[in-house]
Amino acid sequence: MIHAQLIEAVGGATAGVNVDEAADRTSQRILDAALHEAASVGLQRITVEDVVRRAGVSRMTAYRRYPRRDDLVEALVRRETQRFLAAVADAIDAAEDPHEGVAEAFIAAVRFAREHPMLRRAGALEPAPVADSVELLTMGSAFIANYIHGEAPGAPSQHVRWVADVFARLFSTYISIPPADPDFTDDAELRRFAHEVLTPMVERAI
């Protein structure tokens, strides 16, 4: 159910890719190296040379898959965004009570950020360019709006889109500047925050 919305939210993500990254172990090795390099120096400062050295592959092997540095960065962001949205979608689908969906999605999103090599250091690293941040916010907001809208006919209403945008911006801020209250490391406290603040927003929107 949610996975169809996930595919729509990341739409066209694989356009222009010459190899099947999901099936190509070497591509995954390169992207894994890029992820850890980005966690170390920031996404904007990674170089193909450093990624190649960390991955233990030749420059030609990397350049056959990612001819430009921008291609490598885009592939990394695409893969990690897909992983993030899939983790959130799985949490929503696993919720037995539909009223728990918002809280479970929020917890899954925060947990992903806490455990992600790059996201957990987001506040200490150089921020992404504004254009990239806007694109990710737009993608996240669309995903959230589709979830809130559910199986209702038509497109998400303006109220739903507003709430989705607030959620996307809230989470983006929580990643870069983790709050002290609620405690970003305490799932129980985050769940209570979701129940008392986020879920009522969704219920009013629909």
Would you mind describing this structure in some detail?
The protein is mainly alpha-helical and 206 residues long. It is built from nine helices and no strands. Helix 5 runs antiparallel to helix 6 (101-115). The longest helix has 26 residues, at 69-94. The radius of gyration is 18 Å and the shape is elongated.
Itemize the secondary structure elements and their pairings:
Layout: H1 2-9, H2 25-41, H3 48-55, H4 59-65, H5 69-94, H6 101-115, H7 130-149, H8 158-176, H9 187-205
Helix pairs in contact: 1-7, 2-3, 2-5, 5-6, 6-9, 7-8, 8-9
Tell me the number of helical segments per DSSP (H or I, 4 or more residues long): 9
Helix/strand order, N-terminal first: HHHHHHHHH
Strand % is: under 5%
**Overall mean pLDDT score?**
84
Uncertain ranges: 1-19
Query: What is the number of strand segments?
Result: 0
Q: Quote the distance from N terminus to C terminus.
A: 18 Å
Helical amount: 55-70%
Structural class based on helices, strands and sheet pairing: mainly alpha
Sheet with most strands = none
Overall 3D shape: elongated
Radius of gyration: 18 Å
Compact summary:
This protein has helices spanning 2-9, 25-41, 48-55, 59-65, 69-94, 101-115, 130-149, 158-176, 187-205.
Fill in the keyword field for this structure.
206 residues, mainly alpha, 67% helix, disordered N terminus
